[in-house]
Amino acid sequence: MIEVNELTKSYGRTTAVRGLSFTVHPGHVTGFLGPNGSGKSTTLRMILGLNDPTSGTALVDGRPFRDRPRGLRHVGALLDAQDVYKGYTARAHLSVLARSNGIPLRRVAEVLEEVGLAQAAERRIGGFSLGMKQRLGIAGALLGDPPVLLFDEPVNGLDPEGVLWLRHLLRRLAGEGRTVFVSSHMMSEMESTAEQLIVIGRGELIAAESLVEFAARGTRLSVSVRTPDAVSLTPVLTGEGAAVEAGTDGLLTVTGLPASRIGELAARHGVVMHELTTRTSSLEEAFMELTASSVEYTATETGTTGATR
């Protein structure tokens, strides 16, 4: 497990992480979410012993990570795909990591194959695209076959095939009983991949629960209604206090009335229904709502798209 207990990190008068406590369990993909500046990267660096906490502890399997001399056998991590010596080839980079961690060199070829870089093994990293560097960073994380894996924004730079590959990889690793902790701003991807969430804002814990539980905390509840007689049904629903939004595909989105009441009203007025589905908040909607007070940098929409000459 990853155990964070009352973790605090201050830089002078600025506190990046404040009294943060949570546990990441094996067997699940756990998403680590928060607005920009919320302290996610700082927290990951403290877990890995790259930053010293001002107070509190961050333990991996009951011990500080820096106490393990061959760390890649215990924790594999990708924090910054660009942070690599670009003069090395992919094979040379991984070989150095393997030798320094007592890992058999045969693992280099195995992980290059696993991440799809076998054909680029002898190419210098400086010529790699961001997506290729992400794959190389993931290969480095997998090199020691560790029980714990941490990834910071691993989707960045990946093409659609790469995103799908990574999604399956993370699920497989968790299915093998490993602890998989993934920081990301991609809500749609987290919704498709993660089972558990740790959500922070301004360095403090907002939620530590399942994705389903977190999404259910959003207050947006709507009902999707499809009918061939939307013209007749719409005034009936608005007359009951509902808000009705018509989609381009003929689907009505109704808020303010439960599905049962909409069905009763439709039946009373002889309106045929083809679909009646309750929709809860998406992960993105719940995240935006529940972290609104924790956003540090907020852009203002001005209504202009460019300068006038």
Could you name the CATH topology of the largest domain?
Rossmann fold
Number of strands: 13
Largest beta-sheet characterization: 6 strands, mixed
Q: What is the string of helix and strand elements?
A: EEEHEEHHHEHEHEEHEHEEHEH
Distance between the termini: 59 Å
What's the rounded overall pLDDT mean? 90
Present the secondary structure layout:
Blueprint: E1 2-11, E2 14-24, E3 29-33, H1 40-47, E4 55-60, E5 75-78, H2 90-100, H3 106-114, H4 130-142, E6 148-152, H5 160-175, E7 179-183, H6 187-193, E8 196-201, E9 204-210, H7 211-216, E10 222-226, H8 230-239, E11 243-246, E12 251-255, H9 259-268, E13 275-279, H10 283-290
Parallel strand pairs: 3-7, 3-8, 5-6, 6-7
Antiparallel strand pairs: 1-2, 1-4, 8-9, 10-12, 10-13, 11-12
Helix pairs in contact: 2-3, 3-4
Keywords:
single chain; 309 residues; alpha/beta; Rossmann fold; 2 domains; 6-stranded mixed beta sheet; 4-stranded antiparallel beta sheet; 10 helices; 25% strand; elongated
Structure notes:
The chain is elongated. Helix content is 32%, strand content 25%. α2 packs across α3 and α3 (106-114) crosses α4 (130-142). The chain has 2 domains: 2-216, 3-Layer(aba) Sandwich (Rossmann fold); 222-279, Alpha-Beta Plaits, CATH 3.30.70.100. The chain has 10 helices and 13 strands. The longest helix has 16 residues, at 160-175. The chain has helices at 40-47, 90-100, 106-114, 130-142, 160-175, 187-193, 211-216, 230-239, 259-268, 283-290, and strands at 2-11, 14-24, 29-33, 55-60, 75-78, 148-152, 179-183, 196-201, 204-210, 222-226, 243-246, 251-255, 275-279. The chain is of the alpha/beta class.
